Amino acid sequence: MRNDDKKSLRKQESAFNKASAFNIHLTITMADASIVEKVKNIIVEELGVQEEQVTPEAKFTEDLGADSLDVVELVMAIEDEFSITVSDDDTEKLQSVESVINYIEEQLKKQAE
């Protein structure tokens, strides 16, 4: 193979790798948006709050008025929706919408490995 052919091949490989990396990033970003939307819908349904109230920083008990039974039901709905298991210790750490989204993303990444 000539040097010019090798250079051309490397350029094509580089362009392909950049395009693949972009597509992977785009897929992850879309998946994250899907997780956020699903979590938001679950919270609205389980807690009976308005969608506008479900912000990343919203805390379940303080801001969304959830009691301990509401939190248990919320966690069960999340486990069902995302096919994950949330331990009792982890449940106690899930205090806000953002913490739940981050937790789900971590669990799904572990499942994918």
Gist of the model:
This protein is an all-alpha fold. It has a domain at 34-112: ACP-like (Non-ribosomal Peptide Synthetase Peptidyl Carrier Protein, Chain A, Orthogonal Bundle).
Structure notes:
The chain has helices at residues 3-47, 68-82, 88-93, 97-112. It is mainly α and 113 residues long. The longest helix has 45 residues, at 3-47. The protein is elongated. The relative contact order is 0.11. The model is unreliable at 16-31 (pLDDT under 50).
Helix content: over 70%
**Strand-and-helix sequence, N→C?**
HHHH
CATH architecture of the domain at 34-112: Orthogonal Bundle
Instruction: Give the terminus-to-terminus CA distance.
Output: 39 Å
CATH class of the domain at 34-112: Mainly Alpha
Mean pLDDT over all positions = 82
The share of residues in extended strands comes to: under 5%
Give a quick account of the main beta sheet: strands, pairing sense, barrel closure: none
In CATH, what is the homologous superfamily of the domain at 34-112? ACP-like
CATH topology of the domain at 34-112: Non-ribosomal Peptide Synthetase Peptidyl Carrier Protein, Chain A
Shape: elongated
Give unreliable regions as ranges.
16-31
- Structural category: mainly alpha
Number of strands: 0
Q: Over the alpha carbons, how many angstroms does the gyration radius reach?
A: 21 Å
